[in-house]
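TICKET: design request
STATUS: open
ATTACHED STRUCTURE:
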């Protein structure tokens, strides 16, 4: 499945002019997976086509790719770049796009991601035979920090559940304990939970990493809140398959409720994704081996996990205690490190 950005002028694109959306089949020679973009050099306007990633279990475009199409390409990229000829796209024009997005409250990181979509289109157009474009313009990217800092302190965790609406408590605690992604949590169904074994199984098509893995159901808040959700489901909506839902509808976007909860709890900048970083940190502190931490949180590489390693004051206090404990015998043997006077 393909769709266009802009309004091409050639007769061959009459359908696109009329509908704004090309449903032409994939060319036989394009067998790559994921997002695939290129620019049609014959069009007077900048015309990008994107191959949608198809979920093999449903035959439909994945939710993540659908979001990119609706919220990024159609809403922002097409209106701004759609009428510009490919050969006329300049760095100044891209700087203007960044300025526009920042004026709308978006970050440099968001602008980087969106400009990279257009850059991907140019790069793929350049690789075609014959090339659809002869020159790939320079795409200015603002340097981003790779260190992730947000996390949830234990004392805040103790009071945050009291501020949350009931339907968010279980998904919050599960994210805090396991580090699962919000989108993965939202897709969990009751047939994936095994309370006797204390496990949640994530199938490959419901997981970002695209391979199955399991996470533990811990005793305490996590187990109790999941049981409460099951009892509510049995009493009120026995046909709903979703573990985390609001009146049987799976939770997807709860940013407003989350924002208000965090403001009441005194942590207005806390993001749900910070639960992921917090879980990795807590597992490391508890002595869980790295390989198992990665399996639970869903990280494929240790480089990704290292980005979540947060060293705070408590970590430094523990390090100080351990270092002093090691040095104590040496200091005692040397008379406390003091020089004797005659």
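STATUS: resolved
RESOLUTION: sequence designed for all positions
ATTACHED SEQUENCE:
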């Amino acid at each position: 499945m393909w769709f266009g950005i802009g309004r091409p002028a050639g007769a061959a694109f009459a359908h696109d002019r009329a509908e704004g959306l090309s449903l032409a089949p994939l060319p036989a020679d394009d067998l790559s997976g994921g997002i695939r973009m290129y620019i049609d050099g014959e069009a007077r306007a900048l015309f990008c086509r994107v191959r949608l990633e198809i979920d093999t279990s449903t035959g439909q475009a994945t939710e993540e790719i659908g979001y990119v199409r609706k919220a990024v390409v159609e809403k922002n990229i097409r209106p701004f770049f759609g009428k510009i000829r490919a050969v006329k796209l300049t760095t100044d024009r891209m700087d203007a796009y960044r300025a526009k997005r920042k004026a709308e409250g978006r970050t440099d990181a968001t602008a980087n991601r969106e400009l990279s979509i257009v850059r991907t289109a140019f790069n793929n157009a350049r690789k075609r035979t014959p090339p659809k474009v002869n020159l790939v313009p320079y795409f200015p990217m603002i340097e981003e920090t790779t260190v992730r800092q947000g996390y949830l302190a234990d004392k805040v965790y103790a009071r945050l559940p009291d501020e949350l609406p009931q339907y968010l408590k279980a998904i919050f605690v599960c994210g805090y304990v396991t580090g699962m992604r919000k989108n993965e949590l939202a897709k969990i169904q009751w047939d994936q939970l095994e309370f006797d074994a204390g496990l949640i199984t994530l199938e490959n098509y419901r997981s970002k990493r695209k391979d199955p893995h399991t996470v533990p159901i811990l005793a305490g808040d996590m187990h109790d809140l999941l049981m409460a959700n099951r009892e509510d489901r049995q009493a009120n909506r026995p046909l709903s398959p979703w573990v985390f839902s609001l009146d049987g509808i799976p939770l997807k976007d709860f940013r407003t409720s989350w924002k208000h909860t965090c403001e009441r709890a005194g942590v207005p900048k806390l993001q749900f994704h910070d639960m992921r970083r917090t879980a990795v940190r807590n597992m490391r502190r508890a002595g869980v081996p790295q390989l198992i931490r990665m399996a639970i949180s869903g990280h494929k590489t240790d480089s990704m996990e290292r980005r979540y390693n947060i060293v705070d004051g408590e970590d430094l206090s523990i390090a100080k205690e351990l270092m002093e404990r090691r040095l104590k015998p040496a200091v005692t043997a040397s008379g406390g490190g003091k020089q004797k006077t005659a």
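CLOSING REMARK: The first strand starts at residue 4 and ends at 5. The chain is about 45% helix and 10% strand.
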